[in-house]
Amino acid sequence: MRIGIGYDVHKLVENRRLILGGIEIDYHLGLLGHSDADVCIHAIMDAILGALALGDIGKLFPDNDMKYKDIDSKVLLKKVHNIMIEKGYKIGNIDTVITAQEPKLAPYIDNMRKTISEILNTEITNISIKATTTEKLGFEGRGEGISTYALVLLDKIVD
Ligand SMILES: Nc1ccn([C@@H]2O[C@H](COP(=O)(O)O)[C@@H](O)[C@H]2O)c(=O)n1
Ligand SMILES: C[C@@]1(CO)OP(=O)(O)OP(=O)(O)OC[C@H]1O
Prior knowledge:
The protein has 159 residues and is an alpha+beta fold. 29% of the residues lie in helices and 31% in strands. It has a five-stranded mixed beta sheet with strand order 4-1-7-5-6. The chain has a two-stranded antiparallel ribbon with strand order 2-3. α1 packs parallel to α3. 2C-methyl-D-erythritol 2,4-cyclodiphosphate (CDI) binds next to α2. Its EC number is 4.6.1.12. Keywords: Lyase. It comes from Miniphocaeibacter halophilus. This is 2-C-methyl-D-erythritol 2,4-cyclodiphosphate synthase. It is an enzyme of class 4 (lyase).
């Protein structure tokens, strides 16, 4: 068994779609990034890579490489999943916290869990996604950005 942690932040701006946990969220602002800026999937990828001591997503998918411009983060998560399988591990469970003052994410959470569980080839019950505000404190509370923490446990695949 191995454990990993991931954390990511992206800025909220106008004229961008808001993509979180692999799905589009109805909101008037979106996250800025080289990719689709899906801060939830980015934190999960960093947690998986961390558990494998393989660095981070910036090392694997450099943000100056045009190959990754506006890329769907679900594609990157599949690549990380394939690396994890090659190394002989599968998902034990994942827990995440998305910090966003707005919008209300509760209606979207189960769809995010389903989307991520399908990419990682694991049961939806192994994927936990939670949301919190910061009671209007800090950058998330001012609506300037959204952050996510992710923790992952990986189990060795035994044949
Ligand atoms: N963007 C968010 C933030 C929170 N929620 C849900 O609301 C609950 C209460 O949030 P507090 O920050 O006031 O503790 C939280 O537990 C989430 O269920 C949400 O849906 N979207
Ligand atoms: C995902 C990558 C690559 O497109 O770009 P961003 O969307 O900017 O995301 P970030 O969390 O800053 O780091 C990883 C990047 O290399």
